Amino acid sequence: MDPLGATTVFLVICVSCLLFFSAWRKMSGSGKLPPGPVAFPIIGNMLQLNVRNLPQSIHELSAKYGPVFTIYLGSLRVVVLYGQEAVKEALIDQGDEFSGRGKLALADKLIKGAGIIFSNGERWKQLRRFALTTLRNFGMGKKSIEERIQEEARFLVERLRNTHGRPFDPTLFLTHAVSNVICSIVFGDRFDYEDKKFVTLINILEENGKLQRSPWTALYNFFPTLMDYLPGPHHRLFKNALEFRRFVLERVNMHKESLDPNCPRDFIDAFLIKMEEERKNGQSDFTVGSLVRSTVELFVAGTGTTSITMKFGLLILLKYPEIEEKVHKEIDRVIGRSRSPCMADRSQMPYTDAVIHEIQRYINLVPLNLPHAVTRDVHLKQYLIPKGTTIFPALKSVLYDSREFPNPEQFNPGHFLDKNDAFKKSDYFMPFSAGKRICVGEGLARMELFLVLTMILQNFTLKPVVDPKDIDITPESSFVSNAPKSYQFCVLPR
Predict the structure, then answer these.
(1) Could you tell me the pLDDT band of residue 141, with boundaries at 50, 70 and 90?
(2) pLDDT-based confidence at 85, cuts 50/70/90?
(3) Alpha carbon of 364 to those of 1, 90, 221, 269: distances in Å?
(4) Given this model, what pLDDT does residue 50 score?
(5) Which stretch of 6-20, 395-409, 470-484 has the lowest confidence by average pLDDT?
(6) Which residues, 6 or more positions from 114, have their beta carbon under 8 angstroms from its beta carbon?
(7) Are strands 482-483 and 390-394 parallel, antiparallel or unpaired?
(8) Where in the cell is it found (predicted)?
(9) Are strands 390-394 and 76-82 parallel, antiparallel or unpaired?
(10) Measured distance CA(29)–CA(385) in Å, rounded
(11) Residue 44: pLDDT above 80?
């Protein structure tokens, strides 16, 4: 071998050794990091993880490594929390220490840490506090929002009635209705279902949902630098994000022209007023960029998760007509047919309440939760987790705990009913996460799920287009979330 070739081989061996030594140091953490499968340089644990169904891989690894273990997504170290005890100890008992937002390459690229959900530190605290206060001021959990949801539900019922018993896919119907509720809060008004810009936004949202459930998203989170240069459908996500921002910025400029500081109409108005109050604060987190990204987050999160939950819920009720019939009877007894359901009815409808809770538990919409991060070096169990480490609190492991929910793989409203058929709360019910990072829109989502689903069932009987036994309610799993398979059904007026 010539000297140049020998030198090249020597350098390759040295670099490889350094990479393996670096990976070994990360994994060992001087014996303090949680255990986990051997990770390889650059690719991490990609060979041991199912990119199409990461939650299933996490479940299998937990059986070997216990309730707290370490994996590597490419070069990113992630500590997984599995089971109610570990999740509670972290998110609730040590809430401040686990309140950071962990890294997710795709989210970092799309949001750039400027919004409510994916920001950190003082910026996150300021924006989250402002969002919660503003949403409450505009009626989240108050009667005004309840009336808006009831109004939108009536529009939805009318659209369903116009199907005249023919089969249809409920996706757009539900998405339009749910989206208009959040639109009335952030933009100040609902959209006509045929409005071209509204239709475009919803189409983008639907496309993004499909892209985020594809393997391309998982690969991007493993290898972001490489994927930035490779062609593929994942680039549509970035183009779509730009379209969202353009739309919101256009609405912001419209609001600026008609803003009355003494009479804010919606979230955008309230944010603009806050920006003016902090104009002289050079370090303020209330900027146009934060406003645009926060509004996009509220719109996307407020539309997607709730509409998918409703769509999944209707599919489950199609499979179990006996459960639907029991809900019908409770609706007839408590509400009747002559008035709209209201939130005051829920306390008198334990079975319907249990069904809705069971829908959320069963579909476990975000199995691994959004990633958290530790804000300082922290002890958990016998391990030391270094500051900045990304955390996956596996919500499915809590929602499917067989000690709390016997036969968790089966859909059973009885999971939320006591021996007297009264509604039974559970500390294991955390579809909205828990602790400091619990979903900002939890109250709004709970209202929508109860009012919209109850109004649909008050007015219609659901009719499947296939035998209920043949209906598949197994979710389509992805790196981040679950979704129901596409389906059609009919609604028959009651």
Answers:
(1) low
(2) very high
(3) 59, 20, 21, 35
(4) 85
(5) 6-20
(6) 123, 287, 289, 290, 293, 294
(7) unpaired
(8) Endoplasmic reticulum membrane; Microsome membrane
(9) parallel
(10) 9
(11) yes
Q: Is 183 annotated as a binding residue?
A: no
Share of the chain above pLDDT 90, in %: 63
CA distances from 254 to 28, 67, 75, 259 (A): 55, 51, 44, 9
> What pLDDT was estimated at residue 16?
47
- Considering only residues 389 and 211, tell me which one the structure prediction assigns the higher pLDDT: 389
How far is 483 from 319, CA to CA, in rounded Å? Answer: 16
| Residue 222 structure tokens | 């493993």
Q: Is residue 226 part of a domain?
A: yes
Picking from 478, 492, 494, 488, the residue whose alpha carbon sits closest to that of residue 168 is 488
**Alpha-carbon gap, residue 76 to 42, rounded angstroms:** 9
Residues making up the chain, counted from first to last = 494
Which residues make Cβ contacts (< 8 Å) with residue 229, sequence separation at least 6?
none
Domain membership flag for residue 301: yes
Q: Which amino acid is at 373?
A: A
Question: Residue 246 pLDDT more than 70?
Answer: yes
Q: Is residue 346 scored above 70 in pLDDT?
A: yes
The answer to whether 259 and 270 are in contact (CB under 8 A) is no
Q: At 430, which amino acid appears?
A: M
Domain that holds residue 307: 104-372+411-493
Helices 442-459 and 171-186, packing angle to 10 deg: 140
For 165, phi then psi, to 5°, come to 80, 5
Helix, strand, or coil (residue 425): coil
Q: Which ranges of 37-142 does DSSP label H, i.e. alpha helix?
A: 54-65, 84-88, 105-111, 121-137
What residues does 427 pair with on adjacent strands? none
Residues 255-263: contacts with CB under 8 Å, at least 24 apart:
255/188
CA angle 405, 479, 294 (to 5 degrees): 95
Number of domains in the chain: 1
Q: Which two tokens stand for residue 395?
A: 């919500």
- Specify the pLDDT at position 29: 43
Q: Tell me how far CA of residue 342 lies from CA of 139, 142, 349, 446, in angstroms.
A: 15, 12, 11, 12
| Mean pLDDT, residues 206-232 | 84
Would 466 be classed as within a structural domain? Answer: yes
- Residue 261 vs residues 257, 277, 287, 455: alpha-carbon distances, Å: 12, 10, 17, 37
CATH code: domain of residue 484: 1.10.630.10
At 51, the pLDDT band (50, 70, 90 cuts) reads confident
- Compute φ and ψ for 477, nearest 5 degrees: -90, 155
On the CB side of 210, how many CA atoms lie within 13 Å of its CA? Answer: 11
User: For residue 81, is it within any domain?
Assistant: no
Calpha distance 184→178 (Å, rounded): 10
